[in-house]
Request: fold
Amino acid sequence: MKYFIAANWKLNKTIGETREFLRSFIPAVQNVTDVDIVVAPPFTSLSAAAEEIKDTNVQLSAQDLFWEEKGAYTGEISPLMLLDAGCKHVIIGHSERRQYFSEEDVIVNRKIKAAKKAGLGVIFCVGESLAEREAGKTFDVIKREVESGLAEVDSDNLVVAYEPIWAIGTGKTASNEQAQEVHAFIRKILGNLYGDKAQGIRILYGGSVTPDNVDGLMACKDVNGALVGGASLKPDSFAKIVSFNKEN
Ligand code: PEP
Reply:
């Protein structure tokens, strides 16, 4: 299975900074053929990023969308607008959206359906908080999020990202064993939903991935890529992650 590594820039980078990053990053990864390389800039930088990545091996993702196609929804962005801006993928259900914007499972599900209907690939995020992990609820939370988010959704063009909230932006990475344990569990739930097709769904790990820990995480059986926040903001750091050592 081809690895999938995506940069989630969150609320970072102007249009100029986006162009500057890509002009340095693209030459550094031009020979990488065994990884789907994706960047997710803020909405305002999407068109400029689409121009920069044209005819390269880098793909474009948005960080969110709204489920309606058009209408009186001030401030929102539709799936068709993202396609128009050059996006191939969209991140949905990130824990920061769940936490700061009250996005519940039902909203996440609605967004996934809208994205897929428009033909966008979905990077669907799930993950437990520290309190949930410490209370022994990790598997319950993951099961609920996966099953609710994917209700009446097929497996085409779907990537799932396991992002333990306690590891996001904290410098605390899940150990390889912790990551593999939850990834295997997600694969099992996907198997219940999609049968054999679950084997072909890429499950990314996200949470303080860096050039130093990426090799071990990617060597885990059910880890098929990464969603990277902080360490994706510098071209050399993200290029090193994308060029991780596959010999492990
Ligand atoms: C993220 O928010 O998707 C993420 C994984 O962030 P970081 O790499 O900074 O932990």
Remarks:
- The pocket of phosphoenolpyruvate is lined by residues 8, 163, 168-169, 206-209, 227-231 (CB under 6 Å).
- The chain has a mean pLDDT of 97.
- Strands lie at 3-8, 35-40, 58-62, 89-92, 121-126, 158-162, 202-206, 225-228.
- Residues 123 and 159 are 5 Å apart (CA to CA).
